[in-house]
Design brief:
Elements: E1 2-9, E2 12-17, E3 22-27, H1 29-35, E4 43-50, E5 53-59, E6 65-66, E7 71-72, E8 74-82, H2 90-102, E9 106-112, H3 119-131, E10 135-138, H4 147-152, E11 158-163, H5 169-176, E12 201-205, E13 208-212, H6 226-231, H7 255-261, H8 267-288
Parallel strand pairs: 3-5, 8-9, 8-11, 9-10, 11-13
Antiparallel strand pairs: 1-2, 1-4, 2-3, 4-5, 6-7, 12-13
Helix pairs in contact: 2-8
């Protein structure tokens, strides 16, 4: 029998089988030795042992894995970001989006709490990321604004809700899947988001699986080269540079630098791109020593 790991709590996987039945599982010793730990999102083979319980006998090969948050076989990311209460970090947003590109994942940007943010700021961010090739959804979970276009889009596989603590991920999840309430928590007294999700869990939703995850600061994905980072910024492709291998720094005749100066590329996106390049070079040089 095949099933999907939908929750891992206290090292006991919960698996939903293809027939819809749910089992609390344990792993055979050999599987632990051969594969290591099971992850949410793993497709597994299981053998029922008692009512509601089963033994995992095999784990199917993973297409990919996220380390932070720990999820396997991910198809795409909903990157939840807020411009108010508390204001999110655009740098962390871009790191998440670049990580998705590096891993070959789809990514969509969810601008949350739009009822609390200034419209000009929302418009600026919306325009910049649509220009970079992302679907952008403006939503307010409290006022239930903009939710229908977001949830009616057809998707497949496992999609992860990710973003900073306090961005509104769990509140959004509770609104779109009210039968499966996730814990929420008010902001701390200094205005920072507090982490309310303690583990990753998958919810069946409109033909795909939706994962709620703890609000870690960044996804982890290593770039193989500076060119891989450059390719992760899709908006750069609209501009022509004098040199084919241009990395949009000090090279003469750089169309991207010119576009930034003319506000045709968001200045913060370019700044974060250059910072990621510098960090990559530092990491590369450290490894060579």
């Amino acid at each position: 029998m095949r099933g999907l790991v939908t929750l891992l709590e206290a090292n006991r996987p919960t698996v939903q089988a293809d027939d819809g039945s749910v089992y609390l599982c344990y792993l055979k010793g050999r599987i632990k030795r051969d594969v290591g730990r099971v992850m949410v999102g793993d497709w597994v083979e299981l053998e029922p042992t008692d009512p509601g319980e089963a033994r995992i006998v095999a784990i199917q090969p993973r297409v990919n894995t996220l380390v932070r948050p720990p999820v396997a076989n991910v198809s795409g990311l909903f990157v939840v970001f807020t411009l108010a209460h508390p204001k999110g970090s655009l740098e962390l947003l871009d790191k998440r989006l670049v990580a998705a590109r590096l891993m070959g994942l789809d990514a969509e940007l969810v601008l949350s709490k739009i009822d609390l943010a200034d419209e000009p700021a929302i418009e600026t961010v919306d325009h910049a990321y649509q220009g970079a090739g992302y679907r952008v959804w403006r939503v307010s979970s409290v006022e239930q604004v903009g939710l229908n276009p977001l949830i009616s889009q057809e998707r497949r596989g496992v999609w992860v809700l990710t973003g900073e603590s306090g961005a509104g991920k769990s509140t959004l999840l509770n609104v779109i899947i009210p039968r499966e309430p996730a814990p929420t928590q008010s902001l701390s007294r200094i205005g920072r988001g507090q982490q309310t999700t303690r583990w990753v869990r998958l919810y069946p939703f409109r033909g795909y699986w939706l994962a709620d995850s703890p609000g870690y600061t960044a996804l982890q994905a290593a770039a193989s080269s500076p060119q891989a980072i450059e390719r992760a910024f899709d908006e750069f492709r609209a501009f022509t540079c004098r040199f084919k291998d241009c990395l949009h720094g000090q090279e003469p005749g750089c169309g991207v630098v010119e576009a930034v100066s003319e506000a045709r590329v968001a200045h913060w996106r370019y700044h974060h791109y250059r910072k990621l390049l510098i960090d990559w070079v530092k990491t590369y040089e450290t490894k060579r020593r």
